[in-house]
């Protein structure tokens, strides 16, 4: 299981490094990167979320307990980060990056891991994780951006962001198709699947391209704050809630895996779109991806020991 985790994370590290190399060597025009970010945010990621949720097979999955575990643990950690805001000595835009780094997750890696570990059941479990966490995280992040981002939003602006956010809309749309039993039209389904698959390499290349280590010393505090929340507080909260709801087996393992995933490339794209600290967000994403190579196997080992002792 630990080997599967490392193999799933390796492409993430390599693609991020490739983006950094391409940008530094000026292989592509500077104007390419903002357009690629826009494409990912408005087209590729929404296609991934909608398709994965609309086509998931969820038979035999403890949908209620799994979804509630993920939503409650995410809200708990989000509240903890906001409560600790005075102790995190950064400006508003930088705080939005710390917040995203604490709660956002790389669902590409999550789906790959779940499928590799549990086969078709893992794909269904991953779909429920996405359905529960994606809308929750994006709503929380939009609210934090409205309060702390460079572009402060009025209540009407917050409402507009929530109802027009492509990640939220696509997630809710995919869930609606799933609940109503609708299928994606035959000609459209493979196109959406292909667009969704393209979101991973494009997003990670953009993250790598945005890396700028000239201010790395100033990142140490924010990066550590976000990573402690992501790799310690989040799995602890998830395990506590899961046990209280009686979640066990592959569903518990998948819930923990998703909640200890490193921050996704979509966090950087959202920071660029909503007035966050995008360079810091790219740094948090890159550092967490590397830390996850250690943190995720440790969580799995800890879960195994916990089960044996129990």
TrEMBL record:
Q: What InterPro entries does the record tag this protein with? A: Mem_transp_PIN-like, Na+/solute_symporter_sf
Q: Does the keyword NAD apply?
A: no
Keyword Ribonucleoprotein assigned: no
Source domain of life is Bacteria
GO CC field: plasma membrane
Q: What is its main location?
A: membrane
Can you say where in the cell this protein is located?
Cell membrane
Q: How does it sit in the membrane?
A: Multi-pass membrane protein
Stored Gene3D superfamilies: 1.20.1530.20
UniProt GO BP: transmembrane transport
What are the alphabetically sorted keywords of the record?
Cell membrane, Membrane, Transmembrane, Transmembrane helix, Transport
**Membrane spanning residue stretches:** 63-84, 123-146, 167-188, 200-220, 232-260, 280-308
**What family classification does the UniProt entry report for this protein?**
Belongs to the auxin efflux carrier (TC 2.A.69) family.
Protein name as annotated: Transporter
Query: What is the organism field in this record?
Result: Methylobacterium tarhaniae
